[in-house]
């Protein structure tokens, strides 16, 4: 059995932040929040908050203008309209500081932190979140900030810091959805240490919580389905793994469409399944779908694409397509040098896989 080379780090946690403290605002925006977080009708939610923004401007209600700007930013984040999101964040921060809407401004900073994580700038996100921590906030805000920080640390490879924050959330939160997200994060922590039983325990606790709040086709549940599918795969139960992966992929396509990072991650997991069952042609097909989506949404220098290059190159290697494999792995190694430390295990893995190809090609000097 051939294992997929790189664990899908960015898949395991995900940045859905499904609750996002919709209860922290007491106003007439509940319909839009339901559309955004429960029904996941993202375009409808964006249209709702845009209309409410216009109404607030006509009334001269500056507080509601600020809150609608915040919710528009949340909608844009969920559908990954990143150029528009960046513009709204910049303009919104200026407006909220000018009008002294400090609470809404602080909420918008959390959206900015999620945006930074999503585009691969984990250290910048951590720096921003540390700055936020220095200010005095209510417990609920602190818990929301720590959820985002835990994800940032996880993606930056600081796993113990991530787990510590998730443990804090479980101990202190009264919000079951926050606790569910923390369970998922801890499950992912154990997954990376190959502790499958502990990972399964926390994933199952997470999905039970989500199932009491969300419909069965919710993307938050799809995230856990993917994680459970990974566990089944590690245990050699590829049929159940396939069922979980395709269910999650269907939900992501239904809710997000093709051009979304959650969809690309679902494609990557299916590719990993085909790698593990030695169907390398299909693995390449799905890895390339993942690769194309990442390039379309972000740039060619996004950290997520390193894994795609590495996995695609490895699949080509097992097909004995050495030139194609070398090209993919050189791309992965080049990005590693730009974005990661030379001590990162992914950097080392790229060197190992590329060396295997060069040895087989008898290019010993190189």
Topology diagram in text:
Blueprint (H helix, E strand, L loop, with lengths): L8 H5 L16 H9 L3 H18 L2 H17 L3 H17 L3 H17 L3 H12 L5 H17 L3 H14 L3 H17 L3 H18 L5 H16 L3 H18 L5 H16 L3 H18 L6 H15 L3 H18 L5 H16 L6
Helix pairs in contact: 2-3, 3-4, 4-5, 4-6, 5-6, 6-7, 6-8, 7-8, 8-9, 8-10, 9-10, 10-11, 11-12, 12-13, 12-14, 13-14, 14-15, 15-16, 16-17, 16-18, 17-18
Provide the descriptors you would attach to this structure in a database record:
366 residues, mainly alpha, disordered N terminus
Structure explained in plain terms:
By secondary structure, the chain is mainly α. It contains 18 helices and no strands. The longest helix is centred in the first third of the chain and has 18 residues, at 42-59. Mean pLDDT is 91; it is low at 1-11 and 18-26.
The percent range for strand residues is under 5%
Percent helix:
over 70%
N-to-C terminal Cα separation, in Å? 30 Å
Anisotropy-based shape: globular
Low-pLDDT parts are 1-11, 18-26
Number of strands: 0
Assembly classification: single chain
Computed over alpha carbons, the radius of gyration is: 21 Å
Count of helical stretches:
18
Largest sheet: none
Topology order in helix (H) and strand (E) letters: HHHHHHHHHHHHHHHHHH
Structural class: mainly alpha
In short:
With 366 residues, this protein is mostly helical.
């Amino acid at each position: 059995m051939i294992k997929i080379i790189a664990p899908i780090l960015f898949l395991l946690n995900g940045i859905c932040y499904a609750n996002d403290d919709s209860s922290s605002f007491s106003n007439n925006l509940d319909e839009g929040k339901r559309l955004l977080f429960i029904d996941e009708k993202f375009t409808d939610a964006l249209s709702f908050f845009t209309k409410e923004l216009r109404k607030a401007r006509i009334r001269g209600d500056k507080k509601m203008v600020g809150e609608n700007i915040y919710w528009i930013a949340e909608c844009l984040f969920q559908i990954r309209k990143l150029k528009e999101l960046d513009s709204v964040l910049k303009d919104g921060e200026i407006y909220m500081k000018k009008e002294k809407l400090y609470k809404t401004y602080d909420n918008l900073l959390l959206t900015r932190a999620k945006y930074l994580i999503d585009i691969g700038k984990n250290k910048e996100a951590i720096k921003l979140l540390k700055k936020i921590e220095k200010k005095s906030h209510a417990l609920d805000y602190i818990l929301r900030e720590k959820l985002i920080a835990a994800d940032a640390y996880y993606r930056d490879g600081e796993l113990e810091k991530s787990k510590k924050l998730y443990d804090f959330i479980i101990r202190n939160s009264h919000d079951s959805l926050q606790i569910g997200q923390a369970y998922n994060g801890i499950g992912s922590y154990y997954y990376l240490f190959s502790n499958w039983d502990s990972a399964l325990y926390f994933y199952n606790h997470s999905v039970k919580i989500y199932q009491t709040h969300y419909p069965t086709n919710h993307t938050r549940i799809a995230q856990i389905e993917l994680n459970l599918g990974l566990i089944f795969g590690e245990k050699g139960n590829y049929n159940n793994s396939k069922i979980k992966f395709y269910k999650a992929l269907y939900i992501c396509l239904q809710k997000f469409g093709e051009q979304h990072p959650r969809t690309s991650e679902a494609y990557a997991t299916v590719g990993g399944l085909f790698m593990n069952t030695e169907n390398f042609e299909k693995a390449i097909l799905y890895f390339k779908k993942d690769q194309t989506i990442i390039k379309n949404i972000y740039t060619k220098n996004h950290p997520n694409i390193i894994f795609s290059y590495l996995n695609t190159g490895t699949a080509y290697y097992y097909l004995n397509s050495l030139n194609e494999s070398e090209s993919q792995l050189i791309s992965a190694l080049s990005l590693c040098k730009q974005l990661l430390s030379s001590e990162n295990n992914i950097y080392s893995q790229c060197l190992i896989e590329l060396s295997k190809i060069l040895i087989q090609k008898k290019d010993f000097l190189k």
